[in-house]
Amino acid sequence: MKQESTISLERCPHCSTAKPNLTRTNGFETSNSSGNFRRLWVCYACRTCGGVVLTTAVINERNQSQAIHDMWPTPTSVDANVPQRAKQYLEQAIASIHAPSGAVMLAASAVDAMLKEKGLKDGNLYGRIKTAATQHLITEEMAAWAHEVRLDANDERHVDEEAELPTTEDAKRATDFALALAQFLFVLPSRVARGRGK
């Protein structure tokens, strides 16, 4: 992807809008202290939320900017090592951050799917989280956070009239936990196995 007047992303990394209109607002060039390693930095603003994405590309000897090699914030994605069902729930949770009730429930479904993938299929999510902690599959702190996500999702599923509706921040917190759990249970073990294989 090149630094054009607009860039094409699947979702805005700030508001999760699909196919966001990200337009170039400004750019500048830098180099190291020797005048080498020239880079072009370009900012793109989302026309939906106003969030800014910063990109950088190396400038070659012919004074041409190459393809974008870094971007901040990086769009959130789910690693390929996450089992398919959990991955789909998690991707849908990320995509629906703007609809917090749905995102919270999808994050809890992703947690449930990951624990089932680890062989914890009996009972309900409460029992699976407890068993995962007892078997040291997750830490006690992770279990406490998982229970928070579970309870938040229960409030939405059972339309608890006493509970406040979740905010975008609540949805991000639930999704962050599900992403962290996916890293802990599937992504890191896969990287360790690959690393040790080399």
Explained architecture:
The chain has 198 residues and is of the alpha+beta class. It folds into two domains: 6-72; 84-191, Four Helix Bundle (Hemerythrin (Met), subunit A) (Up-down Bundle). It is built from five helices and five strands; from the N terminus they run βββββααααα. It has helices spanning 84-95, 100-117, 125-134, 140-157, 168-197; strands at 6-7, 22-30, 39-46, 52-58, 70-72. It has a five-stranded antiparallel beta sheet with strand order 1-2-3-4-5, with no helix packed on it. α2 packs across α4, α2 runs parallel beside α5 and α4 (140-157) packs across α5. The longest helix has 30 residues, at 168-197.
For this entry, give a set of tags.
198 residues, alpha+beta, Four Helix Bundle (Hemerythrin (Met), subunit A), 5 strands
Strand order, biggest sheet?
1-2-3-4-5
Provide mean pLDDT, rounded: 91
β-sheet strand percentage: 5-15%
CATH architecture of the largest domain: Up-down Bundle
Tally of strands: 5
Count, helices: 5
Helix and strand element order:
EEEEEHHHHH
Overall number of structural domains: 2
Low-confidence stretches: none
Q: What does the main sheet amount to?
A: 5 strands, antiparallel
Q: Quick one: CATH class of the largest domain?
A: Mainly Alpha
Q: What is the CATH third-level topology name of the largest domain?
A: Four Helix Bundle (Hemerythrin (Met), subunit A)
N/C terminus separation: 31 Å
Class by alpha and beta content? alpha+beta
Rg over CA atoms: 21 Å
Task: Specify the overall morphology.
Answer: globular
Q: Give the helix level as a range of percent.
A: 40-55%
